[in-house]
Specification:
Blueprint (H helix, E strand, L loop, with lengths): L1 E6 L10 E5 L5 E5 L2 H12 L12 E10 L16 H15 L8 E11 L3 E8 L2 H19 L3 H4 L24 H4 L2
Parallel strand pairs: 4-5
Antiparallel strand pairs: 1-6, 2-3, 4-6
Helix pairs in contact: 1-2
């Protein structure tokens, strides 16, 4: 696991701060608006926390963006202004990839992003490898929610054919009775 806090005023320009211009000859020219300073700032801070070896498996990244207090806002209050959370993370993850936190940000299987107003501005990052046990826990929670929402519990108790995969009520073969049949998904 890698966990750190970067005390800084978080950048408000993102990868989305890229502009395009079509020249008279028809060529499209891209340029960075204010993004270069933000990337340089993030790179300098992130370089201090590069893990000894890059993550190679599935990972979860938790990022908390803490913006300096302004106006009537209170410490810990949700920050609902621009930039969008997903755009902030695009820039962050691209820089972390370049620095060698992982080979490809496709390794991020779970991403949690939060934005707050804070007395102490900065960016909190926590990276953890995901295991099959994590997946089983998530799968069990999803299955539990499916059962709660579905409303049809007949299939769960008595309506499966001998093969254990065909619903007697619908005649559908779902292949996995633990998931449930189509009649469960109608509600």
């Amino acid at each position: 696991m890698t966990e750190f806090f970067m005390a800084m005023i978080p950048p408000t320009s993102t990868k989305q701060a890229r502009g395009w211009h079509q020249a008279a000859d028809g060529k499209v020219i891209s340029y960075d608006r204010a993004n270069a300073n933000a990337e340089g700032k993030l790179t300098a801070h992130l370089a201090k926390h590069i893990p000894p070896t890059p993550y190679t498996g599935a990972i979860r990244v938790l990022v908390k963006w803490l913006f300096p207090l302004r106006g009537q806002h209170r410490n810990g209050e949700w920050y609902t202004n621009k930039p969008d959370a997903d755009n902030l993370c695009k820039a962050l993850y691209d820089i972390m990839t370049k620095l060698g936190y992982w080979k490809d940000d496709a390794k991020i299987a779970s991403s949690i992003t939060e934005k707050f107003w804070a007395e102490v501005p900065g960016i909190y990052v926590k990276i953890e490898e995901l295991t099959n046990a994590d997946l089983k826990e998530i799968s069990n929670e999803v299955s539990k929610k499916q059962k709660e929402k579905a409303g049809c519990f007949g299939c769960w108790f008595a309506e499966w054919d001998a093969d254990g995969a065909t619903c007697r009520r619908t005649g559908l073969n779902v292949g996995n009775p633990e998931i449930g049949c189509a009649c469960r998904l109608e509600t």
